[in-house]
Amino acid sequence: MKRFKNIILLIILVQLSGCSKFLDVKPAGKLIPEKGDVASYEKLLNNDYTLTGGFRSDANGFCRLNYLTDDIEISNNQADYFWISSSPAMDLYYAYVYKIPYYSPTEPDLYIWWMDFYRAIEYFNVCIDGINSVRTEEEKQLANETIAQAKVARAYLFFNLALIYGPVYNPNGTNDFRTIPMRTQSDVMAPMEDLSTNGEIFSQVLKDIHSSLKVIPDEVASPSRFGKGATLAFLANYHLFTQKYDSVALYANQALTLAATQKGGIDNLFYDYNKFTWADAGVVTDPNKKNASTINTSQGSDALTANYNREMLLYRKCANPPGSSYAYPSQSFHNLFNTGQDLRRDFFFFEYNGYKTIQAGVTYDDGRKVLNYQSKMARTSGFSYPELLLIRAEGRARTNDLAGAIADLNLLRKFRMKPGFTPFASTSQDAVIEEVLNERRRELPVGSQKRFLDLKRLVLEKGKPWAKESITHVVKGTTYTANVNSDYFRMPIQNDVIIKNPHWGLEVETRPWSSSK
Questions:
Q1: Where in the chain is the domain with CATH 1.25.40.390?
Q2: pLDDT tens digits, 21-75
Q3: What is the pTM of this model?
C-alpha cells in the first residue's frame, strides 16, 4: 500500500486553536471535530489552514513564482550584496536568473506543496467525508451547502496546482502531462492516488464547480468562504484558460450582477481612490512619510488591510510583494501607471529610499527608487471585485463586445483615476484586449501567482502584443532568458515526495543545488 507519508505525519500531528484576524467566525478546534455532527464539520471551512493558499515559497511569505515574471527587477547592488549565500530564500534569486533547480531538491517543499495546498485539501476532504458519514434528513440543506463549498474550494486548489506544477494548459492540445495527485480521500491510511494529467484535473474541476453551483449559498458570512458569487468568478476565471470567452463573459456578468444586488449597486463593490487621504497629514510636505502612513477610507484607516474590505470577493492569503532589499517593481510594470492621472501610482507605487549597504567602508546605494507598498491594502490570491470586472471586460473584448469591455474599463477607472481623466476609447479589438490585460496587470497584487499564471495562458497567442514567449532578466550585464512554455515555468515535485510514492514512476532530481552563487 502506497501512502503519502509526507502529508500523513503532519496531518496526524496538527491541531488548531484560537481564531484568526482574517476570519469573522471562530474556527473549529481540531482537524476531526470532537462533536461529530454536520455543524461541527461545517466549522472546518472557517479554519486558518483552509485559507493559506498564499503560494508562498518560504517562511517570510515571498513567492518564487513572482520572480520568474516581468513584474519585478533586481538591481546590481542587491545582486552583489543582498543575494549572497547567507541570504534567506536564495530560491527566489535562482528563479530570477532561471537557475534550475530553483530550490534544493533534497529539502521538502513545505510551503507551496504542503502548507498552501495539501494541508487545506485534507481539511476539505475531512469535511466532505465527515458530513456524508453523519448527515441526517433534518440537516440536508446545511450538509449539501457545506459539501458544495468544500468541493469548490478544493477544486480551486487543484486548478492552481495543475497550472503551477504542470506545463501550459492548451485548450487545443492533449494536456496529457501527469502533474499532481488529486487527493479526494480523508483517510490518511488510504493508498495515495496516482498522478492526474492536466486534462483530467481541468475536467474534474469543471464538474465540481458545476455540481457546487446547484446548491452553494448565495451569501456567506465571510469572504474567506466560497459563496455563489465567488464560485461564478472561479468558473469565469477557469474559462480564461480554456479560451471559452463567451462563458467568461457570461459567468463574470452573473457574479457581478449578484454582487451588485447584494451590495446595493455596482459602485459599492469598489473604493473610490479620489476619496482616500493619508492618515499622516505630513505626507503633503514630506512625501517620504508615505512609507509609514496608513490610508484613510470611508470605512476607517484600517479597512484596506482587512479581508472584509469592500473590494474583497474571495479571501485567500497572498504572498508578500518584494521588499526594497529583495527587488523592485520592474520598469515595464510601473511604466503602466500614469504618474499624473493614476491614483494607484500615488498611493501604492511611490519613490522612496532604495537598497543601501556599506561593504568594507564603501557605500553602495540604489538611491531613490519606485517602491511597491501594496502592504497598505489587503491582497488576495483569490478574487477581488476589480479583478472580476476585468475578467468580464476580457470576455467581452474577446467576443467582440467592445462597447461592453470599454464600459467596464472606464467604470473601474472612474474609481482609480483623478477627475478629468481621458476615458479609454478604441475601435480595434486587439487594442481593447491589450488595454484590458494592462489594466488587469495594474490591479493584480504584485507578489501573487496571478501574473505567473497569466503569462502561461497568454503565451499561446503567438504574434499578439500581450503574448510573451519568453521573459528576460538582466543582472550586472548578464542576460537570463527563459521560455514561458518550458520547464522553467513549472515547479517540480520534490524528491522526498517522489521517493515515498514510487508508483508515480518519477525520477528524483540529481542536479546539484547550493546556496552559494
A1: 1-222+461-512
A2: 333 333 443 566 666 789 999 999 988 899 877 788 888 888 999 999 999 999 9
A3: 0.93
Q: Provide the pLDDT for residue 31.
A: 63
Confidence (pLDDT) at 34: 63
> How big, in percent rounded to 5, are the helix, strand and coil portions of the chain?
45, 10, 45
**Best CA proximity match to 413, nearest among 442, 433, 392, 391:** 442
The class that CATH gives domain 1-222+461-512 is: mainly alpha
Task: Determine the Cα–Cα distance for residues 23 and 225; give it in Å rounded to an integer.
Answer: 10
Q: How confident is the model over 99-149, as pLDDT tens digits?
A: 999 999 999 988 889 988 999 999 999 999 999 999 999 999 999 999 999
Cβ pair 112, 52 in contact under 8 A? no
427 class by beta-carbon count within 10 Å (0-12 exposed, 13-18 middle, 19+ buried)? exposed
Q: What is the 3-state secondary structure (H, E, C) of 443-485?
A: HCCCCCCHHHHHHHHHCCCCCCCCCCCEEEEEECCEEEEEECC
CA 290, 292, 295: angle at the middle one, nearest 5?
Answer: 65
Q: Which of 507, 501, 441, 392 is nearest to 2 (CA)?
A: 501
Determine the Cα–Cα distance for residues 254 and 405; give it in Å rounded to an integer.
Answer: 15
For residues 446 and 333, the answer to whether their CB atoms sit within 8 Å is yes
For Cα atoms 117, 120, 123, give the angle at the middle one, nearest 5 degrees.
150
**CB count in 10 Å sphere of residue 133:** 10
For the chain, first and last CA: distance in Å?
42
Over residues 284-294, mean pLDDT: 90
Task: Identify the bridge partners of residue 481 per DSSP, sorted by sequence position.
Answer: 472
Phi, psi (degrees; rounded to nearest 5) at 408: -65, -45
What is the structure's pLDDT at 485?
98
Nearest alpha carbon to residue 338 among 417, 452, 440, 223: 417
pLDDT-based confidence at 15, cuts 50/70/90? very low
As a whole number of angstroms, the distance between CA 306 and CA 379 comes to: 9
Cα 393–398–402 angle (5° rounding)? 60
Backbone angles phi, psi at 384, to 5 degrees: -115, 165
What does each C-alpha distance from 205 to 155, 162, 179, 308, 419 come to in angstroms? 5, 10, 14, 27, 43
CA neighbours within 13 Å on the CB side: how many for 41? 27
> Average of pLDDT values for 469-484?
97
User: Which residues does residue 295 pair with via DSSP β-bridges, in sequence order?
Assistant: 278
Mean pLDDT of the chain: 90
| Cα-based distances in Å from 338 to 237, 324, 350 | 27, 22, 12
Measured in degrees and rounded to the nearest 5, phi and psi for residue 480 equal -120, 125
Q: What percent of the chain has pLDDT over 90?
A: 75
Q: Which of 294, 271, 274 shows the shortest CA–CA distance to 282?
A: 294
Helix axes of 228-242 and 385-398: crossing angle, nearest 10 degrees: 40
Measure the CA–CA gap between 146 and 139, rounded to whole angstroms: 11
